[in-house]
Specification:
The protein is mainly beta. It contains four helices and 44 strands. The strands form ten sheets. The protein has a 22-stranded antiparallel beta barrel. A five-stranded mixed beta sheet has the order 3-8-9-6-7. A three-stranded mixed beta sheet has the order 14-13-17, with no helix packed on it.
Length: 757
């Protein structure tokens, strides 16, 4: 498991992070910790005790994230380590796709939208490429399940994953950590806090992660010979001013530079008629003739201002700017040659397919103004205005692997997105035990999409489909128009209540709505233009949050049911390699989440998490194209398409479970500790249709860190291992050509050292 967090100034460490409710438990005293620390969250845009928040929230602290990240993993490490959270990617470290309660989006296009919003330092990261920014020097991660449309806005019908960096403080301090592991991996992270006096301070945070290539190409003529290495560097500089009640300011500038392998697609690694790996599968070898490369540069800045207006009122202004430049190229067929040539493989390669996607120009601007009250009476409120603008271009390339990787296709599209929202929320203390909350948000969302350039000389799109240039591509559209301009207006709301059964036990109930604006995918070599209208989610949940046994245990339980009307789906792949947007009549989901943390003794801490999600697509007439080589188990139409009514949502595990155990004991002048974490998710469908081969097996991954902390927690040396059992699973697939798949991260191990100063 990745590393144990540092244990500053506390001898007996108890860091914990639950699979269901990852939560850092800081140790306190060499002999015993008598109670769990209070957890403060900002799920409702105010700092509150997590027990008071009437919704399902899981929090991970920076120390726990250090533990998980000691092996240099990217943001996907959070998958299944939070109840009902799954994260996967067909782009590797660059483009994570998030799913909460089974609800997400499998679309691999760079202009895709997701129903799970990622907010980093109060600025939404709208484009999926932005969502992969590394986690380092992070104070807290909050996972908010269910619609969050009132306070967090558009594209949050499934929930929000929220990151908060450590802010500049008043003390001169910092830390440096170094992890060294197998495959010549290194993970260097550090931060320094610099107070200047007069309320002014700065914090500089850096990250550098590296790993050598470890997969070898058995084809000596392949354009890339070594794979799966990377160099991922990031920096964040913050300048803060604390003027007390009257004025606070925080300026944040950050950047990332990542280069390495794109997602490694492996041809025919699935045994036909099963979802097993083929006999003799070797994860350290691949046979491919295509080129594999990936690079990404991103930068951003934000300015957060807080003005005390007097009379218990505060004005917040949050201005954000983000930009990204990305390019990723991979061999989609996953092998070499083609079946009509003398040599090809592994397995059947009907035809070669190699492509790349890039984002050469991107800009995102956002502005929020929010006024909140902090009045002594039972009634408080907040209201605001939100503006969002995004403008970017996406380039798509195709290459002829059989001709040495020469380019034979190009497309450039442009998408602009403008959104405006006004919102408000109130809470009222009806009695000492009962508090009611309500929120309302009006959003106007507009997209402008166009195809700016297209040319193709490849045999299939050009000769067989007659799509050789932009004019021919447009001529195949029913209206002859390659652009789309959807505009949506939506009112979202929520209503919740919390009732204190005692000073330590609260029950809550919440009903909330959320929506995702229309999505557009342009006409291309393999499909026509498609537009999916807005989807709307209505969610009901109720639960209990309790501190138990004199705060030596903490329990959170919630049950939920949601209905998404006009659900946006992406039919990706299939034998025609299409990428088509659809609206299903609806989807329903139901289930529960459990978080439990407990001090089992003076030196032992355990956490347990459980998420259950039962999702179903409800549309008796909806049919999609199916794979070229797999065994489809759905009923079929006369045209051979699969009817998907009743299927689970893709990448939606029914069960996620997480367990951690931490033991610590004083030894000499410090603490010896051992920390193990385990995360499980049940099987998943990769696509909308169900098939034998493209059903991902259940996945169980565990980690272990053993170390010694001394100097009153200032120094920490440890050894770690991730994916202890080295369980290898197919976690995604490419279905249009053969049985191509990609796998999870292999077992890794190493040593780590952290010093605080």
């Amino acid at each position: 498991m990745p590393a144990r967090p540092t244990f500053p100034r506390h001898p007996v460490a108890i860091a914990a992070f639950t699979a269901l409710a990852p939560l850092a438990l800081l140790h306190a005293g060499a002999s015993a910790q008598q109670a769990l620390p209070e957890i403060t969250v900002t799920a409702e845009r105010r700092a509150e005790n997590i027990r008071e928040v009437p919704s399902s929230v899981t929090t991970l602290t920076g120390e726990v994230l250090d533990v998980l990240n000691s092996g240099g993993q990217d943001i996907r490490l959070l998958s299944a380590r939070v109840p009902s959270l799954n994260i996967e990617s067909s782009f590797g470290r660059a483009f994570p796709r998030f799913y909460l309660r089974g609800y997400g989006n499998t679309d691999f296009r760079l202009n895709a939208s997701q129903p799970v919003s990622l907010v980093y330092d109060d600025v939404v990261q709208e484009n999926p490429i932005l969502k992969g920014f590394p986690m380092f020097d992070v104070e807290r991660v909050e996972v908010l399940r269910g619609p969050q449309g009132t306070l967090f806005g558009r594209n949050t019908p499934a929930g929000v994953v929220k990151f908060d960096s450590v802010k500049p403080g008043k003390n001169r301090e910092g830390y440096a950590s170094l992890g060294v592991g197998d495959r010549r991996s290194t993970n260097l992270e550090g931060a320094v806090n610099l107070p200047f006096g007069g309320g002014l301070a700065a914090r500089i945070s850096v990250l550098d992660q590296r790993r050598d290539d470890w997969v070898k190409n058995t084809i000596p003529t392949g354009l890339t010979q070594d794979f799966e290495g990377y160099r991922d560097s990031a920096v964040r500089v913050q300048l803060g001013y604390d003027g007390g009640r009257d004025f606070n300011a925080l300026f944040n500038v950050h950047a990332r530079d990542m280069r390495g392998s794109a997602r490694l697609f492996r041809a025919n690694i699935i045994k036909p008629g099963t979802n097993d790996l083929v006999d003799g599968f070797d994860e350290e070898k691949i046979s491919t003739d295509g080129k594999n490369e990936q690079e990404l540069q991103s930068a951003g800045a934000s300015l957060r201002l807080r003005f005390g207006l007097g009379g218990g009122l505060t004005l917040h202004s949050i201005t954000g700017w983000e930009t990204v430049d990305a390019y990723s190229r991979g061999d989609i067929d996953g092998g070499f040659g083609a079946s009509f040539l003398p040599s090809s493989g592994p397995g059947l390669i009907p035809f070669a397919s190699e492509s790349a996607d890039g984002m050469p120009r991107h800009r995102q601007l956002s502005q929020e103004f929010r006024v909140e009250s902090a009045l002594p009476g039972p009634f408080n409120w907040q209201a605001g205005l939100y503006l969002f603008n995004e403008d970017y271009r996406v380039e798509s390339f195709s290459y002829d692997s059989l001709a040495g990787g020469t380019q034979d296709g190009y497309q450039r599209v442009r998408q602009k997105n403008d959104a405006l929202a006004v919102f408000g929320a109130v809470k009222y203390k009806v009695s000492p035990a009962l508090e009611l909350r309500a929120g309302l948000r009006y959003t106007q969302d507009k997209k402008d999409f166009s195809v700016e350039a297209y040319e193709n000389s490849a045999f299939v799109p050009c000769v067989l489909s007659g799509k050789c240039n932009l004019a021919q591509l447009a001529a195949q559209e029913p209206d002859g128009n390659l652009s789309a301009n959807p505009k949506d207006n939506k009112l979202s709301w929520d209503l919740s209540g919390t009732y204190a059964l005692s000073k330590d036990v609260n029950v809550f109930a919440r009903v909330a709505t959320g929506f995702r604006g229309s999505s557009v995918q342009g006409a291309s070599a393999f499909n026509g233009k498609s537009v999916a209208g807005p989807e709307n989610n209505t969610s009901f949940e109720a639960g209990v949050k309790a501190d138990l046994l004199d705060r030596r245990a903490r329990l959170s339980f919630s049950a939920f049911h949601y209905t998404v009307k006009d659900l946006q789906l992406t039919a990706v792949g299939g034998a025609a390699n299409a990428n088509i947007l659809l609206n299903a009549d609806k989807a329903v989901g139901k289930g529960f989440e459990l978080d439990l943390q407990a001090l089992l003794g003076n030196h032992l801490v355990a956490t347990l998490g459980l998420g259950y999600n039962d999702t179903r697509i409800k549309d008796p007439n909806l049919a999609v194209a199916v794979c070229a080589a797999c065994t489809v188990t759905d009923p079929r139409t006369a045209a051979g398409q699969a009817l998907i009514d009743g299927n689970a949502l893709p990448q939606a595990p029914k069960v996620t479970t997480n367990f951690t155990l931490r033991y610590s004991v004083p030894v000499g002048g410090g603490d010896f500790y051992a920390f193990t974490d385990w995360a499980y998710r049940s099987k998943v469908n990769f696509f909308l249709y169900e098939s034998t081969e493209f059903t991902g097996k259940a996945l169980l991954e565990g980690g272990l860190r053993v170390g010694y902390a001394w100097g009153n927690g200032k120094y920490d040396a440890a050894a770690y291992v991730r994916n202890i059992t080295n369980q290898v699973r197919v976690v995604g697939g490419i279905d249009f050509n053969n049985l191509t798949g990609f796998i999870n991260e292999p077992r890794s191990f190493g040593v780590a050292f952290k010093a605080m100063f």
